[in-house]
Amino acid sequence: MNKINLYLFLLAILLTKPVLGQVNFFGKPGLLAIPSADWNEEQPLGFSFAYLPREFSLFQTNTNNNTLNMYSVRMGITSFMEMNLSIAYRPLLKDKIGIGDRQLDFRFKLLRETTFLPSLVLGITPPGSVSPVMSHDYLVATKNFHTGIGTLKLTGGYGSPYVFIRNKKSKNIFDIEIRQKHDFYNKLYLTGFFGGITYSLVDFGGIMVEHDTNTLNAGVYVKIWDRLYLQGYTFEGKELAFQVSSHFNLDFAPRALRKYEKSLD
């Protein structure tokens, strides 16, 4: 399928299918590459798969030019904390690195959105992540503006230019060193200020534009079935990427109560 056909396909879905919410390619609430401060109070369990073209892979170098398949699972632990695990699978290196690099991070809700204040979330990657390239520590805010012609969502934040790495040669698990992200594959993902805009004309669809501190990206998100979501996006208008995700609520009522509530509908 060429680029024009894919754009038309995504647009057709956007106009005909319902949708709710979106996640970034790490599988956490966000736009395309950047995170957002969106928070689901129902403590969801989420799964996602994202395809990134080789030109915009986190691991791109002159000798390691691979497409990237990102597998992620996210779980709400408490009303103010979520955990996310991502695996970066690179097909051309499967014989050397196996399933790929892993990354574990946590999101903490600092503020809930109010009439005048945005929601605020802190993201932290603990020291010891297998791949420092995937590490990111950030503070992000999101504010929704509901109008008569749709909903406008603004997201902005700052990503730390440093990464915390545990010294594997030391027996002391608290032996931590601080390095610059630039030292690893010359990458600057979420290093500095980032931001994005999401616009939804109706509550079942949206378009997105963002700057992830490195590239300018745009895309759409759609709902295919009850719990299945699709995103299509482009990096700098040069390469296409896509993502499929699914979400399940963990904070549900007992079966007897849900059956009773359904009988009242």
TrEMBL record:
InterPro entries: YbjH (IPR010344)
Pfam families per record: YjbH
Protein name (record): Exopolysaccharide biosynthesis protein YbjH
Organism of provenance: Salinimicrobium marinum
